[in-house]
Specification:
Blueprint (H helix, E strand, L loop, with lengths): L7 E3 L1 H4 L5 H15 L2 E5 L5 H15 L3 H5 L9 E3 L7 H4 L9 E6 L7 H4 L17 H26 L15 E9 L12 E4 L5 E4 L7 E4 L5 E3 L7 E4 L2 H6 L9 E3 L7 E3 L2 E4 L5 E2 L17 E2 H12 L16 H5 L5
Parallel strand pairs: 1-2
Antiparallel strand pairs: 2-10, 3-4, 4-5, 5-12, 5-13, 6-11, 7-10, 7-13, 8-9, 8-11, 14-15
Length: 341
């Protein structure tokens, strides 16, 4: 238990296919999500050199002149560059906080101009926007995304086993998963000003988020008992959490835990969270192992793509003009907690 609160899970035996490792590791995943909603992942096999190169790529991107970054400004697919907000969005205002002090660059699955989803202008399935003057940036980032996609696809069966389902239960949803890489820059903030956060308290939208080890700390987690704890650096270990779709899919059995960033380190902090989600046609409805006569399903079915669109409109000002799905599909409890979004 890292910091006495967050489980450390070593997946090396599972990934090596050792007998009994899947069941043992799945039990640890179940414990983590029923108690905390976060865990540290060791034994994942991602080369440290690739992690270092990706951090270096994020720093190179954000070192560009603002004009170069704004040329890639995020669109209604939420692909591209998002500068530090000039005014606080609704989720910050609801918490009495100022705008988050970070800038970010978003990428999704790499697609060509002849991709059917690109040709049909399907929401969140557009082509990435790449900087023109950064040698080997694109190659490094795509290698990192491919490596994490492969790792996450291997981890998904653990989640199914942790929920008492067959290891292959989620295979269809993750045959071609939806991917997001966020490359963030957090300037140092004044630690004495409680109204300023590098990233205001929020929950993630999806199924699985992986944060590579970061020596510049700043992430903290809101435990179920109401205490904020810092997530310390653990050499070689990713910080992994679930999001609202995992919470909804499991009928709230697995936690979607609020977290925040406050960079009071005195130096610039970079982060490269990777978001791994089901394909957007996946219907999210209560899993059979998570409901009973005593615990009926709390949420109506919804396609993940519709949920992702609703979620983005809650968080990003440039997405608020995009038509949202019928709010009848969003449970009242989710609307009430949108402040975390």
């Amino acid at each position: 238990m890292i910091g006495g609160e967050i489980p450390l899970i070593d997946a090396s035996d599972f990934l090596a296919g050792k007998p009994g490792a899947a069941e043992r590791t799945a039990a640890q995943v179940r414990f983590a999500f029923e108690r905390v909603g976060f865990y540290y992942l060791a034994g994942h096999g991602v080369p440290q050199s690739l992690i270092d190169a990706t951090y270096e790529a994020a720093a190179r991107f954000h070192a560009q002149p603002i004009e170069a970054k704004l040329a890639l400004k995020a669109d209604d697919h939420n692909i591209g560059y998002v500068p530090i907000a000039a005014k606080a969005p609704a989720n910050a205002v609801a918490q009495g906080l100022k705008a988050s002090q970070n800038e970010a660059y978003f990428l999704r699955r790499e697609r060509g101009a002849d991709d059917p989803d690109v040709l049909s202008n399907r929401r969140f399935h557009a082509m990435n926007k790449w900087p023109a003057e950064l040698p080997r940036f694109r190659e490094t980032v795509l290698a990192y995304m491919a490596t994490l996609e492969a790792l996450c696809k291997r981890l998904v069966p653990l989640y199914a086993l942790a929920l008492g389902l067959s290891a292959t239960w989620f295979d269809r949803a993750y045959a071609r998963p939806h991917l997001i890489l966020r490359m963030s820059r957090y300037p140092a903030i004044d630690g004495d000003d409680a109204s300023v956060a590098s990233l205001v308290p929020h929950t993630d939208s999806g199924f699985m988020t992986l944060l590579p080890p970061n020596k510049v700390q700043g992430l903290s987690i809101l435990l179920p008992d109401g205490r904020w704890i810092d997530a310390p650096y653990v050499e070689g270990a990713f910080v992994v959490n679930g999001g609202d779709i995992l919470h909804r899919w499991t009928n709230e059995r697995f936690l979607s835990t609020p977290h925040r960033v406050r960079n009071v380190s005195g130096q610039t902090r970079y982060a490269v969270p990777f978001f791994f989600d089901p394909n957007h046609d996946t219907v999210i409805e209560c899993l059979p192992s998570c409901q009973s006569a005593e615990r009926p399903a709390k949420y109506p079915p919804i396609k993940f793509g519709d949920y992702a669109l609703w979620f983005a409109a809650q968080r990003y000002e440039h997405m608020q003009k995009v038509p949202a799905p019928d709010e009848a599909a969003i449970a009242p409890g989710e609307r009430a907690t949108a402040r975390w979004k």
